[in-house]
Amino acid sequence: MTKERELSLSNTPMKDTGFRFDTRYTTLPPVLYHLGEPAPARRPEVVVFNARLAEELGLRLGELSGDAQASLLSGRARAEGSVPFSQAYAGHQFGGFSILGDGRAHVLGEHLTPDGRRVDVQLKGSGPTPFSRGGDGRAALGPMLREHLISEAMAGLGIPTTRSLAVVTTGEPVLRERPLPGAILTRVAASHLRVGTFELAAAATRNAPELLPALMDYAIERHDPELREAESPALAFWEAVAKRQAALIASWMRVGFIHGVMNTDNVTISGETIDYGPCAFVDRYAKSVVFSSIDEGGRYAFGNQPWIARWNLARFAEALLPLVDEDRDRAVAKAQERFAHFEGWMNEAWADMMRDKLGLPGRDEDDIALATDLLALMEASSSDYTDTFRALSGATALPAALEGARGWGTWKARWNTRSGRGQDEAPSADARERMRRANPAVIPRNHLVEEALAAADGDDWDPFHRLLSALESPYGERDELTPFQQPPPASFAGYQTFCGT
Ligand code: AMP
Ligand code: MG
Q1: Quick one: the chain helix, strand, coil %, rounded to 5?
Q2: In the prediction, which pLDDT does 99 show?
Q3: Does pLDDT of 1 surpass 90?
Q4: Is 462 helix (H, G, I), strand (E, B) or coil?
Q5: Helices and strands: H and E segment counts in the chain
Q6: Angle between helices 305-324 and 233-255 (to 10 degrees)
Q7: Is 186's pLDDT higher than 70?
Q8: Domain-wise residue ranges, the chain
Q9: Which ligand is nearest to the CA of 274?
């Protein structure tokens, strides 16, 4: 039976699905990927389908029967033009270098969208690959639902992210601490190129010197074609990636997002957020908030994210050195000169983001201090991050603990003065509007995400869909949002998230 399915998988591609595959990645040297098909799931069933995203992508999956949809989105059937492969990459994980690769994912191909974009369509949880390193190549339903929910919430928040087209259960258990329902997520990404992809090519330079230039050409063509003519395409590309990362991290900090595992294999070249394993959102603010169970040293703590991005971009610059100059010392000097700018870009991105959150007009050199001092007051009073900014933008009353904090009155006076208003005046309508566009009314609060996933596990899908739908447009207060705006109850203390599940 399995054989037959494998044969049909190879022999009868499905037509008229709307997929327009035009895959270029597999023209690169084969060290960078492995051609191989997903392991057919036994009884695939679509449990979540993102109809709006399907439409944006020009897909006609809604017209297929449930069975055909499930076959396609689990890798049991293949759309015309799809030649699946897994990607090889390396990465610094918690500081240590490893050779990695998609251990449980298959890229179905590069799809051309009606609006002229090229996106990767990837199945995650689709079976073992040569990169599985002993893992089963599968994923459990809970973590795939979590990725769907959070990546779609990030998209709603206006933050660059990979998207989720669907979650399909496989009808087979996966073995974790206990057997769990298996599932496959269809991930759509501007590309799956990571800092780690370049680290792999750089590590292979001695034996395969053609790898790094080929990868660079492909990446520039795909993400920054205007840089082809730059004086040093490699340095210009590094700068483009670094600026996208600075903007991305600033937007994470804007909404209180903690990625949780900012290893270089999880840092995209496109500037999209990727990999939602151990991520979480800050509630009671502290710079050092960490939820990930394996992050014992707090390496990926909320307030550390800008500086971890800097560390990751240093690894990226190192990987590009052979392309910068044939003389190693000169390459290092040129890369260092460019790298020195990152701190400024990151600080400016962060400061601009805080100016939006606080509704500050123009730019003042003391803005970073003003924002940092507010965060210190929030930390001292254990104030909720989202609620504090909602309150400052006039949506709700200030958290009592913050108002009672020593130094609050002085800070508020500084804020008023900096904003150009009198001490008894509220922010102008314009300032409030700007603040409301920067400060979400609703975020995927950790306890609600866990409640929704637990309910779905018990086959009650209502909380999952209600939360997903509340997060579609997270700016602007509406009565329907009230149930999703409450901070976690005290009983929720000690929350932990997990990797690679
Ligand atoms: P992640 O934490 O999702 O970034 O994964 C880190 C690495 O472990 C990637 O190379 C994954 O493909 C691999 N991996 C995670 N889970 C599994 C699994 N169940 N089977 C095989 N490989 C896995
Ligand atoms: Mg990863």
Answers
A1: 45, 15, 40
A2: 97
A3: no
A4: helix
A5: 17, 11
A6: 170
A7: yes
A8: 25-192, 230-349, 366-438, 446-492
A9: 2
* pLDDT at residue number 501: 65
Amino acid letter for position 378: M
> Tell me, what's the pLDDT at 12?
79
In the numeric block, the tokens 């240093």 are attached to: 314
Distance CA 456, CA 472 (A): 19
> How far apart, in whole angstroms, are the C-alpha atoms of residue 190 and residue 115?
13
Ligand 1, pocket residues at CB < 6 Å: 100-104, 131-132, 135-138, 261, 266, 275, 277, 499-500
Residue whose Cα lies nearest atom 6 of ligand 1: it is: 500
Classify burial at 103, counting beta carbons within 10 Å of its beta carbon; exposed 0-12, middle 13-18, buried 19 or more.
middle
366 catalytic per annotation:
no
pLDDT band of 11, cuts 50, 70, 90: low
Q: Which residue in the list 102, 224, 265, 295 is annotated as catalytic?
A: 265
Q: What mean pLDDT value characterizes the chain? A: 96
Side chain identity at residue 78, one-letter code: R
Dihedral of the CA atoms 468, 470, 472, 478 (nearest 10)?
180
Beta strands in 398-500 (DSSP E): none
Sign of CA dihedral 483, 485, 490, 492: positive
Residue type, 36: G
pLDDT one-digit tens code per residue, 33-61: 999 999 999 999 999 999 999 999 999 99
Cα of 422 vs centre of ligand 1, distance in Å, is 55
**Which pLDDT value is given to residue 9?**
47
Q: Which two tokens stand for residue 254?
A: 């804007």
Burial of 384 (0-12, 13-18, 19+ CB in 10 A): buried
pLDDT given for residue 320 in this prediction: 98
List alpha helices for 127-232, DSSP H.
Answer: 141-156, 195-203, 211-223
pLDDT digits (tens, 9 = 90+) for 226-274: 999 999 999 999 999 999 999 999 999 999 999 999 999 999 999 999 9
Q: Which two tokens stand for residue 151?
A: 């990546």
pLDDT of residue 499: 82
Nearest-atom index, ligand 1, CA of 129 = 21
